[in-house]
Design goal:
InterPro entries: ACMSD (IPR032465), Amidohydro-rel (IPR006680), Metal_Hydrolase (IPR032466). This protein has 10 helices and 8 strands. With 261 residues, the chain is of the alpha/beta class. It has an 8-stranded parallel beta sheet, sandwiched between helices.
Length: 261
């Protein structure tokens, strides 16, 4: 089974399905989103969507309204394509730990999602993720995905690794291979048994090759669509692996085990 470990809700959804079919991807982890760059029809509208993205990944999007629409949109997409989409729900980090725990129960499990993410703490504030990890551990070790590209910092990656060691039952996934800090992300994953790396939007194929070599059982094929492309992301994995067990694990076997598929 080929599973894309990282994608976002598309508008319209059928455009995403066409990309998955072209890439030969069976299923994808689907994350909610506020920005929709695939809707843009020119530079001005694209800049608008990127401004929303910047607000989101910098941790500036707070309040219930910033989440409710994305939760509903994600739930509708998963309900429409349950055989293709595996929903992961984001929760707020700007509330008390007990409310975070309640959101994991209500907005993740209550909506039928299988994991938590993509979390976007403000830069150098990755410690805000810890209540989510505690709640995930209370529910049998739900996978948790945290944004890894800028503005996430190398310090944030070190904090996430420390939190992962504090919550060893929770698979913690750093997305986008840690962005420009990919070498640090790989080093930290080598030292942290429950720290995973998704390879989405990796900047250079050398980083993909090194991650697969150094952390073969905890690297996950991902596209970050619509920002990345499933065809190209799969090609990168196949470029640095040979047909066989390792490639199969990276392209979906490891994630299938994590999710009990």
């Amino acid at each position: 089974m080929i599973i894309d470990a990282h994608s976002h809700v598309h508008d319209p959804v059928h455009g995403h399905l066409a990309l998955l079919d072209e890439a030969g991807v069976d299923r994808t982890v689907l994350l909610g989103t506020r920005p929709h760059p695939e809707r843009a029809d020119g530079l001005a509208s694209f800049r608008h969507e990127m401004a929303v993205l910047h607000e989101t990944v910098s941790g500036a999007a707070t309040g219930a309204d910033a989440y409710e629409t994305a939760w509903d949109e994600l739930q509708a997409a998963v309900a429409a394509q349950p055989d293709r989409f595996i929903g992961f729900g984001k929760v707020r980090l700007d509330v008390a730990p007990e409310e975070i725990a309640a959101q994991v129960e209500r907005e993740v499990l209550g909506r039928g999602f299988r994991g938590v993410g993509e979390l976007t703490p403000p830069p150098d504030r990755a410690e805000l993720v810890e209540p989510v990890l505690a709640a995930a551990a209370d529910h049998g070790g739900l996978p948790v995905v945290v944004h890894g590209y800028a503005p996430t910092t190398a310090r944030d990656l070190a904090t996430l690794a420390a939190l992962a060691r504090r919550h060893p039952r929770v698979p913690l996934v750093i997305s986008q291979l840690g962005g420009l800090n990919w070498l640090t992300a790989i080093e930290l994953a080598r030292e942290t048994p429950n720290l995973y790396l998704d390879l989405s939007t990796a900047g250079v194929v050398l980083a993909v090759r090194l991650a697969v070599t150094e952390v073969p059982d905890r690297t996950l094929f991902g596209s970050d669509a619509p920002y990345g492309d499933p065809v190209l992301a799969r090609a990168a994995v196949e470029r640095v692996t040979k047909p066989g067990a390792l490639r199969d694990r990276v392209l979906g076997g490891t994630l299938a085990e994590l999710l009990g598929l």
